[in-house]
Amino acid sequence: MTAELEDYRRQVRDFVERKAPPIAPKAGVRSAENADELALLKTWTRDLFAAGHYGGSWPAEYGGDGPGYRLERDVILGEEIARRRAPAPVQGAANLVAHALIDFGTDAQKSAYLPGIRSGELIFCQLFSEPGAGSDLASLRTKAIRQDDGGFRISGQKVWTTNGQWADYGYLLARTCPEAPKHKGISAFIIDMRSPGVDVRPLREMTGTADFNEVFLDDVLVSADALIGTVDDGWRIANSSLGHERAGVASNAVRLQRNIEALYELAGTVRRGDRFALDDDAVRDRLGELAASVDALSALVYASLTRASRGEQRPHDAPMTKLMFSELGVEIAAFALELCGEAGVVTGGACAVDNGRWQDEFLYARAYTIAGGSSEIMRNIIAERGLGLPR
Ligand SMILES: Cc1cc2nc3c(=O)[nH]c(=O)nc-3n(C[C@H](O)[C@H](O)[C@H](O)COP(=O)(O)OP(=O)(O)OC[C@H]3O[C@@H](n4cnc5c(N)ncnc54)[C@H](O)[C@@H]3O)c2cc1C
């Protein structure tokens, strides 16, 4: 972090302080709970793009920084959003589709979707996972069959679709060639979520909120221009767009640092027998251990980002930070809830500790050990590609 970047950090911190939407902080990445929250998140996304804090990795002709792009700026933005416990902008899936379009889309597709993503108006969801295809995504079964007019007829079921209930469009993977080896017969599409045959059913999670959905696709007809890139090239397109999501891990480390700070405060206010939890040596030892682990995570994240910015990233770098962040998050939340004692079961009213924050953190934390590749899959990659162990 140079002086110039620290100066940028001050600007971003000030911006986040002034513009972050007034939505109560929650653990993790969550969908809008109602139309008012959605409107606030759209404005937040628009403001971040307009100020140039978001979308820097886009080419200059589409409003990004072009060759002047610096990964550190994305890292700083993510960190400052996490530090303020402000919500993530609504555009997770839109970021993926934007990169798919920038790298593989036609000019008509770019001008149809990119401005709406920048203005926060168009909401996208990611229609990749299926009931039988998550870790092994390439085994997906949703079919897209070519029609005489060049369009496609799409049928299948998707699941865990974040923001599906709000999305205008879906970034979809479907099988176009059932005879080809499983990674080869997949194509990428943009589908209008309001098309006849699309049925979105929100799933209420144990946190009490509905952040993702089941999506049923029943003979959905799309025209030829819904296809991104060429037929059967969807696996490469999906992997390339996922590869643009590197800066997020730094914000996750800051998220845990904030939780450690809050944990100190919590231990200073809740009691264990006749004294504050913080006065108990066992509590202090555990706190120290968790704080040291979060510092180690931070160091690992910066080492990984430094390698990435030099083009020297190793296949196991991101899995190591993802694994450590998500497993540590579960441990911290579990310890916090333990400190809350019986009061940890209530989320409102006079007895609730920190307005139920720790229960929400505890219930959500496990989602991070699954989303974006489960802990077992991360361990497999580290073992096979990092340590050279046999499959
Ligand atoms: C909060 C959240 C948001 C999400 N949002 C989206 C979204 O917007 N769009 C989308 O498409 N998907 C989304 N997902 C889905 C996510 O990508 C999948 O949940 C993830 O890839 C795991 O797949 P699965 O749930 O099918 O589990 P499975 O792959 O069925 O795994 C089940 C268990 O088996 C283990 N396992 C599987 N394979 C192996 C192996 N080879 N070796 C060892 N263990 C293995 C896993 O670790 C896991 O414990 C989201 C998930 C979460 C939790």
Question: Mind telling me which CATH architecture of the largest domain this is?
Answer: Up-down Bundle
Q: Main beta sheet: strand number and arrangement?
A: 4 strands, mixed
**Strand count:** 10
Helix/strand structural class = alpha+beta
Q: What characteristic shape results from the CA principal axes?
A: globular
Radius of gyration: 22 Å
For the residues shown, what is the average pLDDT? 94
Number of domains: 3
Order of helices and strands: HHHHHEEEEEEEEHHEEHHHH
Number of helices: 11
Protein name: Putative acyl-CoA dehydrogenase
Domain Acyl-CoA dehydrogenase/oxidase N-terminal: 2-121
Domain Acyl-CoA oxidase/dehydrogenase middle: 125-220
Pfam families: Acyl-CoA_dh_1 (PF00441), Acyl-CoA_dh_M (PF02770), Acyl-CoA_dh_N (PF02771)
